[in-house]
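Hello K.,

You asked for the raw outputs rather than the summary table, so here they are, unedited. I folded two proteins back to back in the same session to keep the settings identical. This is the first:
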Amino acid sequence: MKPSKIYVPIILATSLLSSIAIVMFAILFDGSNNSGFTGFIFDFSLVITYIFLFTSIFFAILFPIIYMFKNFKNAKKILIGIVAFAILFLIVYAVSPAEQGPFYDKMNVSPILSKFIGSGLYLTYIFFAATIIAFIYTFIAQRLK
């Protein structure tokens, strides 16, 4: 069996098991002091959720790295995209304000965290606009052919 055929079942199994653990956690969480068997199930489902979350993150990072070493010529394009994203994030981070207000004071949000929140919002706006522009460009390009 090729290694690439192993990836999909691993990802599907981890996703399914983590979803089940998250549902178990959500069903049992009511904010009260859980004790006894319910508390054990609550704690167990929380631990399982964390295990599968970190396992999924591990595989989500590992598989692209394996792909990059197998197809280094195609990986250059991916690396250029990652570097472009990092540069865009640094620009947006430098531009975003470190606002403080009553809501941020109430929620204990520091100026640095405020800059990260602003950066995330600006990046969301930029990617949304880029998606709309790409959609319009593709639509017009298909009509002109």
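The second followed immediately with the same parameters:
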Amino acid sequence: MMPTVVSMLSWAALLLSLERFFYVWLCESPRSFVRLCRNPWSKAALDPVDVVEVLFGAFKMLQAGVFVWWCLVFGRGQLFPLAAGPAAILSGALLITGGQALILIAFRRLGRLTAFYGGQFGRPVRWNSGFPFSWFRHPQYVGAVASIWGVMLIFRFPAPDWWWLPALQTIYYGLGARLERYDPARSLKTRVTSRWSGRLRSLSPRARQTWHRDSS
């Protein structure tokens, strides 16, 4: 028996939410993520930026898997032949092309360190106000959403289930754009500096001079 749209959507919502929960947690608590990157059997620790990059790829594979699963289930085990007409296929292709272009340009502008949350770990990052950031606050999210609508327009339109996953991902990426914000006050470097600054202010003037002399 073919699963219902509600049950499929529930599973998809759960699986696709993992990425958004991860990035929100990363922005809110970078220190706890860095602790998880430590190797308990060695003094060496994994670079958190490298770990985020690997997880980024894993989440994209999970996302692609959910979409293929959806298309196969509601396509009764087949992706082809396409039921969409030429206009829908062309529109989907344009959305995918434009969306992927936005993502590539945004990543190129940001650089690897910024794109994979290096700022949250106290790394010096550079911000860019040129295109596409002059048009969109999160162009990589806009590009991802456009690509998702394009894919489902090609593979599932005009079936009644074609818009459910794109709508769900639009909501998720919209929430992510609001919640996954880089806040310098929450970065690892700022927290460490604030902790030592607080301890320094609690010292007496003489002890403070001694601390400065010993640390210089």
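Residues 114 and 125 are 5 Å apart (CA to CA).

Happy to rerun anything if the numbers look odd on your end.

Regards,
P.
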